[in-house]
Amino acid sequence: MAAITSFVGQLLDQTFLAAVDPLCNPAMIALPAMKGLEVLSVEAFARRNHTFPASTSFGYSEPINNMNFCNVTVTYTHPGWGDSIHVMSYLPFEDEWNGKFMANGGGGLMAGGELLSHFTMIPSLMEGFAASITDAGYLPTIAEAFDTSKTWTFSNPGNVNWPLFMNFAHVAIHDMATIGKAVTEAFYHKAPEFSYFLEGSTGGRQAHMLAQRYPEDFDGIISVCPAINWPRFLFSNLYAAVIMEKLNQGHDFT
């Protein structure tokens, strides 16, 4: 029985080793110590000839085929904060890498996350960038991300969840720059030549925050449609409805 158990164990070990991609596995992602961060886990697996499904919501009417990359997820915490944050990276294999790093942001009440990958990481990957995004420790559905009635920022009624709030505001975005570039350097054995941040809407506001608080994180920061003036922005959304009401061509708001 002992001999059989030993044989089965060796067979399972060999099967596991055969399944590990030599170009993409957690052992390759050796991260340095990072001040204020504790890495909880590193996951890495290869996606070869991968197909991203069509997403009309994000402008892709057809599937995106034949994508080859290493998918890395780093889970970490800020000691004492009780948080758990994921930084996801899509790393094209070396012959398809353009030598640069692109960090992506979020939308609505989402700091980022793979739910937005069609709009964020996939375009970066298609251009040859090593791309990263963070969920900032909060992973709503798409519907929840645009529902301002949610009380996700509160640990309990009347008490703000400050770690979650600060992560969403700026801390996790800065961490993504640190971790994403470290993952990129570990994978390719050299640092990216240039690093950028690109996003719009909430991501555009994240870009403004990065430029103000962490100007050294990136060589270039692109803020698209940040809607930074919220009083004007929100009231402008009502303007068309008000005009329609005045012309008796819209809904009856009385």
UniProtKB/TrEMBL annotation:
It holds the Pfam family Tannase. GO terms for molecular function: feruloyl esterase activity; metal ion binding. Its EC number is 3.1.1.-. The keyword Disulfide bond applies. The keyword Glycosyltransferase does not apply. Belongs to the tannase family. InterPro entries: AB_hydrolase_fold, Tannase/feruloyl_esterase. This is Carboxylic ester hydrolase. One of its GO terms (biological process) is xylan catabolic process. Keywords: Calcium, Carbohydrate metabolism, Disulfide bond, Hydrolase, Metal-binding, Polysaccharide degradation, Serine esterase, Signal, Xylan degradation. It catalyses: feruloyl-polysaccharide + H2O = ferulate + polysaccharide.
